[in-house]
Write a structure and sequence with these properties.
Elements (H helix, E strand, L loop, with lengths): L1 E5 H12 L15 E6 L2 E7 L3 E7 L2 E4 L1 E5 L2 H7 L5 E7 L2 E6 L2 E6 L17 E4 H11 L14 E7 L2 E7 L3 E7 L10 E5 H10 L4 E6 L3 E5 L4 E5 L18 E6 H11 L11 E6 L2 E8 L3 E7 L2 E3 L3 E5 L1 H10 L4 E6 L6 E5 L5 E5 L6
Antiparallel strand pairs: 1-5, 1-7, 2-3, 2-6, 3-4, 4-17, 7-8, 8-9, 10-15, 11-12, 11-14, 12-13, 13-26, 15-16, 16-17, 18-22, 18-24, 19-20, 19-23, 20-21, 24-25, 25-26
Helix pairs in contact: 1-2, 3-4, 5-6
């Protein structure tokens, strides 16, 4: 195999593909590398851990077609080359990379050892790329990263009220986003998609549309830049609807940016401390944020806000709270509460398509 490709094009393709190579112990060693195939149409780069697969196709001048499994070190090498064409020549178990007066060689694993991946062929449903990526940005953050709880590492996609609903939870918080008019699933249909794969879709989404191909065991997302295949998770997602209170007696409305900035400032004293909580005191005069950490210090800040209800103080995990505020895209956010021990929700002020529920933290 021998091809020539522009440095920036090759570097971007390698960076995208290698994000989904296997990183966990016990995986096939060959899955820690990239599969590159070259033909008359250009290059296809694949990175996969058998749960999430990234496929990237880029133009290249192919002199000799072929397939090779190349160490992901290739990405670091290409990034540091000077701008211009990069030539990769594979002979036997060695790849030689040259650019200008630079040359290096890399040892390769046998291409036949790379697992056969399912074809990504098939026709799917097209959805607006910008809207879908924005919804993923709001929801994926709430999924669990604990592989010991596989159900919670997924995002529930379900047909809902003539559109699509996305739901994720790690049992401490819950994110629900409705995309009205998006007909990706049949009425009553629901699938659980690995959040890691949807995070890749979010990163790769550009302008235009995303084509979604739903299959028995996985789902393929074709973007303008690449193709992501994410496995479907088997199992029953928690009954999240019963966690959402039907009404709230208290509502705080505050500037999103002011709240974000204040959270970042008061959180400084509690950084890297799992037991540090941010307290929010809500009164008719506004709100006060406060945080303290033993042997470090305290911080507090007052903000103008509108509050309707009974005065109360509630504490939250500051990271989870900041994630929820950040996910909201309007100028103002609304925090609905019942009491210091029951779930609270964040929403866009005046909006109903996104809900972020989080559990309060007990404090002494």
């Amino acid at each position: 195999m021998k091809f020539r490709c522009e440095r920036d094009t090759l570097a971007d393709a390698v960076a995208t593909a290698q994000r989904t190579v296997a990183s966990r112990s016990g995986a096939l060693p060959v899955l820690q590398d990239l599969r590159i195939s070259a033909n008359a149409d250009g290059l296809e780069l694949i990175g996969s851990d058998l749960e999430i697969t990234n496929r990237v196709q880029v133009p290249a001048d192919v002199e000799e077609p072929g397939v090779a499994v190349v160490p992901k070190l290739l990405g670091e090498i290409v990034r540091k080359l000077e701008p211009g064409p990069v030539t990769v020549s594979v002979t036997g178990d060695e790849a030689v990379i040259t650019a200008g007066r630079f040359s290096t060689s890399l040892r390769l694993k046998p291409a036949e050892d790379y697992p056969r991946l399912a074809s990504s062929d098939g026709q799917g449903v097209r959805v607006d790329s910008t809207a879908f990526a924005a919804a993923l940005r709001q929801v994926v953050r709430a999924a669990s990263k604990d592989d010991l709880r596989p159900i919670l590492t997924g995002v529930l996609m379900t047909a809902h009220a003539g559109g699509l609903r996305l739901v994720a939870t790690d049992s401490y918080r819950l994110a629900v986003r409705d995309l009205k008019g998006v007909s990706m699933l049949a009425e009553g249909q629901r699938v659980l998609v690995a959040a890691k794969g949807l995070a890749e879709v979010q990163r790769l989404a550009g302008d235009g549309e995303i084509e979604v191909v739903l299959r028995d065991r996985d789902v393929v997302f074709r973007t303008s830049r690449a193709e992501v295949t994410a496995r479907l998770i088997e199992g029953d997602f928690p009954n999240y609807e019963q966690l959402i209170p039907s009404s709230y007696p208290n509502r705080l409305t505050v500037s999103r940016d002011s709240l974000m900035d204040a959270l970042e400032r008061v959180q400084i004293v509690g950084q890297n401390r799992d037991n540090a909580a941010v307290r929010i005191s809500m009164t008719a005069d506004g709100l006060e944020l406060a945080m303290s950490a033993q042997d470090v210090g305290t911080a507090q800040e007052s903000l103008d806000a509108k509050f309707e209800g009974t005065e109360l103080t509630v504490a939250f995990n500051p990271v989870f709270l900041r994630d929820g505020v950040e996910a909201i895209e309007t100028d103002e956010v609304a925090l609905d509460t019942i009491d210091p021990l029951k779930p609270a929700t964040l929403r866009a002020a005046g909006g109903d398509d996104f809900l972020y529920l989080l559990m309060p933290v007990r404090t002494s």
